[in-house]
Every structure is written in C-alpha cells, then in structure tokens.
Amino acid sequence: MDGVGEELDLEDLAGIGSSTAEKLRRAGISSVKELAAISVRELLEMSELGEGKAEEATKSARELCLPKVLSAKEFLERRRKMPRLTTGSKNIDRLLGGGLEPGVTELIGAFGTGKTQLCLQLCVTVQLTENRGGLNGAAFYIDTEDTLKPERILQIAKRFGIEDEQILEGVYCFRAINSDHQFEGLREAARYIKEKSVKLLIVDSLTSHFRSEYPGRENLVLRQQRLNNFMHGLQRLVSLYDLIVVATNQVVDVPEVIPGARPARPAGGNIVAHGSTFRLWLERSKGMTRLTCIDSPKHARDTTYVTLTEGGVEDAEEEV
C-alpha cells in the first residue's frame, strides 16, 4: 500500500475530530493507512466508536489511501519496486525466484528440519545492505516455543562476516506465552514496523498455542476462527507495509496413509493454507534438508537441498 496515509494525522480526515482520533489511537490505530485496512466490524470491537462514526471513518480512510483500480501493468510496476530478501542460501533463493518477497511464507516441517535455523539466519540477512541481498532493516521475532537463541544468531552472523554483537540490536524479541499474548505480539510488531524500521516479521511457531489451548473436535471451530483472525492480522501488515512475514508450522501425523503421500499434513488446515502466500515443506533426507515449494501463486512446484551447519543454513548438492 502506498504511503499517502502515513503523512496525514487522523484529524485530517473529514468528520474525524480530536475526540474520535483519540478513541482510534486508544484502539491501537495511529495512522490513516491503518484505519483504511480495518473493517467496520473490527473497528466497533476495538474502539469506543458508534457504528455511524466507524463507517464514516473507515470510508474516508479508504477513499484517501486505496487506489480504486490498477491495470495489471501498473500492478506489475508496483511489484517490481517491492523488496526482496536473500535467505542466505542460493539454492533457496533460486527456488523462490530471487529470495523472499512481501507476503506470508510458511515453513512446514517436523522437529529438527531446520525451520528455526532458517528463521535465525533471516534475522541476520535482513540487516545486510541491499547490495548483499539484505534490506537494511530489523527483524521482529514472535517466539512461542522458546526457540530464539541470541548465541545462535551470533554464530550465524560470523558466516556473513559480522563479528559485532550489535547485530542483536536489530532483532526484537517478543516471547508469546499463550495465544492471546501472540495477538498482542502482532500489535507490538505493527508499532515496531513504524518506529524501528522492521522489515521482517517471524512467527515461530504459528500454530503451537492454538493447538494446545483448543484441543479436540469440540474446540475445532473456535480454534480455526482464532487462527483465521491471526492470519488476517499478518496479511494486513503485509498489505500495509510490504512486509515480509515468515511463519513456521508444525505437522500432524496422518493415521491412514495414502500410497505415495506424505504421512503427515500441516497443522492449521485450510485456514493456514489459504492465509499463506508461499508454502515450503522441509524434510530430512540423507543428512540434508529437502525444501519443496508446495504452493505458490507464481512459483512452480520444485525442490532444493540445504545442510544445517554451525554457520546456519547452507547450500547442499542436490540429489540426482
């Protein structure tokens, strides 16, 4: 989304006075751009506004910030200006057509396949200069399983020629202890994007808390609703800030295996599948990790190989 709404105060909108603007800020909406991305129903739940005022506020923001229609050529030109982030692996960058781009990239895999290692490596690469494939930005890490280890980031940074512990100052850690807290992390991330030049948001892992807090079929509907809300929160940040989001996901064993199919499936079902822009499946294979792009609106289904080393996630020779 273009930056028009960032230059205006909420009070600059027609029909928004100081009292209404203050109510919006108390609800966590500090810019016209953010207001444009909120539905009336969400705004009513978040704020003290009445329905009429909520409709007026969101409509005014959308008219100002959102283009009515773009031609495919205009959209292509806009996409060409979007950031690209190297993963630190040429094999994975090739798989993704040049690296990570704005959207939700889901890393699916069992324990020990390298999902967190790749996330920690991205905390380093996002801080690299643009001529090295980085974004000169910071990372915001929502940690739900106590996986973020600063010592490991320092180890990986050495591979990229960085010896200074200052690299850790560009990684903001939010330890989410339950699903409610995970939503709070999303709100904090939005603030850090604006104030600390955060270009990468990591959620490790996406589904852990939701699975543990809403077990069994009797809680399935509520769990999926909550997951859906969280996925939409991630997508909104992508739309607002051209943000790169990487979310790790667990796998669930499948009792009855279809011949030739994987004996597991990603947690979260269709909600997570539809909410993710790019989906990569990580599996251990002969001492390496095999990455397969299983879903993407632009990439062909393809596979590559990496190894997990002291220096992080490095390229491996592909199997024939």
TrEMBL record:
Presence of the UniProt keyword Lyase in the record: no
GO molecular function per UniProt: ATP binding; ATP-dependent DNA damage sensor activity; DNA binding
Entry-linked PROSITE patterns: RECA_2
Gene Ontology biological process terms in this record: DNA recombination; DNA repair
Nucleotide-binding is among the record's keywords: yes
RecA family profile domain residues: 81-251
Family of the protein in this entry: Belongs to the eukaryotic RecA-like protein family.
UniProt-recorded name of the protein: DNA repair and recombination protein RadA
